[in-house]
Amino acid sequence: MRGTKAARSVAAKIGMALGTLLFAVVVNFFLFRMLPGDPAKAFAPRGRNSDPGALREIRERMGLDESLWVQFGKYVKSLVQGDLGVSWSQHAPVTEVIAGRIWPTVLLSGTSLLLAAGIGFWLGARQGWRRGSRFDKITSSTALSLYSVPEWLLGLVLLVVLAKADFVPADGGMSSSRTELPYWIDLLRHMALPVLVLTVVYIAEYSMIMRSSILDERHADYLTTARAKGLRDALVLRRHALPNALLPSMTLFFLSLGFVISGAITVETVFSWPGLGRLTYDALRGPDVPLLQGLFLVFSAGVILMNLVADLLVPILDPRVGRS
C-alpha cells in the first residue's frame, strides 16, 4: 500500500515536470517571434537588405513566409525527432552549436556553484552557531552587500582593478597567442575572475539558508543532551546540529544545479567566456530565433530536471517530508 502511494507520488511529479516542459516549449516558440526587428533584414547579404525580392527569398528559406501555426506545427514535429533546426547566424545545426559551448559553461558555473555552496555552508554554520558575534555581523553584512551587487558591475570593477594590473587575463577561455604555460594552468588563469565574481555574489544564498537552519536547531533538546554528555561545542555542531540543518541547504543546492547549464549571461559576456551565456547574447543580437529557441529549451529542461531530482530526493533524505 505504501509502495503504491509512493509510486503514484513519483508518477505525479514526473507528469508535472513533463507538463512544465511542454509549457516551456510553447512559450519558447511564441516568445521569440514577438522580438522586434526583421530577421530577414538582419541576415541578408550586405547591400541586399532593402531588396524586396531578396528579402522574400530569405523569408521563404527561413520559413517565415508561412503562418505562425504552421511554423509551430513544423517546430514541434522537428523537436520530437530531436532536431532543433539550423542556426541562422552560424549556418550549422543548433544541437551542434549548443554542444560545442555547453562544457565551458558547465565548467565555469559548476566550479562557482561548488565554491559558493562550500564556503556558504561553512560560513552559515559558524554564523548561526555564534549568532550576534563579531564574526556573524561582519561576514553576514559582507555577504549580503556582495549579493546585492549586480554580477556584471562587480565583473567590470574586477576587470579594471585586477586585469589592468596584468594579474590575470581579462577575457576568453584560453590564450589566443601561443603560451608556454600548460593547458590547465592557462585555463585556470582565464577562469579566475569570472569564477570569483559568481562565487562571491552567490555565497550569501547558501550562508543565509544554513545560518537560519542552525538557528532553528541551536536550542534543540538533543543538542542540550549532547552538551550535558561533555561533548565539545565544535563537536556538537559538527556531529549533531549540522546533519539536521543540512536539508534546506541541500534542497537549494540541487535547485541551483539546474542553473549550471544556463550559466550567467552577463558574466560570460563581460569576460568573453565562450559558453552558452555568451552564445545567448550573440543570438539575441540577430535575433537568431532557432538558436534562441534551442538555448532556452536547454535552459528550461535543465532547471525542470534538477527541480524534479530535488523533489524526489528530499523525501528520501528526510522521511518526515514524505509522510507530511
TrEMBL record:
Domain annotation ABC transmembrane type-1: ranges: 102-314
GO cellular component: plasma membrane
InterPro entries: BPD_transp_1_N (IPR045621), MetI-like (IPR000515), MetI-like_sf (IPR035906)
Principal location: membrane
Keyword entries, A-Z: Cell membrane, Membrane, Transmembrane, Transmembrane helix, Transport
Cellular localisation: Cell membrane
GO biological process assignments: transmembrane transport
The keyword Oxidoreductase is assigned to this record: no
PROSITE patterns xref list: ABC_TM1 (PS50928)
Xref: SUPFAM superfamilies: MetI-like (SSF161098)
Transmembrane stretches, start-end: 12-32, 102-123, 144-163, 183-204, 245-271, 291-314
Signal peptide span: none
Bilayer topology: Multi-pass membrane protein
Stored CDD domains: TM_PBP2
Similarity remark: Belongs to the binding-protein-dependent transport system permease family.
Name used for this protein in its record: Peptide/nickel transport system permease protein
Source species of the chain: Allocatelliglobosispora scoriae
